[in-house]
Amino acid sequence: MLAADTLLSWFDRTARDLPWRRPECTAWGVLVSEIMLQQTPVARVEPIWNRSIDIRRDFHQLQGSLVTTCFQTEKPIH
């Protein structure tokens, strides 16, 4: 078995079901998760990511948000 096959097999068995890995997740959702996950554990990011994506589904909605509103939503990460 090739190393890649072994790795993919392992991932299929052990991967966590995270909302940003689901097929319906947009590129925006993946980008938001990558930013949030920079130095924060997944367990802390997931509920805040869900709330953030519910409020701001795309970049245009983020643009329209006040900076203070964004910080209030993501504040539990810090």
Would you write up a description of this structure?
With about 80 residues, the protein is mainly alpha-helical. It has one domain. It is about 65% helix and about 0% strand. The protein has 5 helices and no strands. α2 packs across α3. The longest helix is centred in the middle third of the chain and has 14 residues, at about 40-55. It starts with a helix and ends with a helix.
In short:
The protein is mainly α.
Mean pLDDT: 85
Shape, per Cα inertia axes: elongated
Termini separation (Å)?
Answer: 43 Å
- Give the helix tally: 5
* Low-confidence runs: none
**Share of residues in helices:** 55-70%
- Structural Rg: 15 Å
List the helices and strands in order.
HHHHH
Major sheet: none
Tell me the β content: under 5%
Helix/strand class: mainly alpha
Instruction: Give me the count of strands.
Output: 0
Number of spatially distinct domains: 1
What are its keywords?
single chain; 78 residues; mainly alpha; 5 helices
Tell me the layout of helices and strands:
Blueprint: H1 3-14, H2 27-36, H3 42-55, H4 59-64, H5 67-74
Helix pairs in contact: 2-3
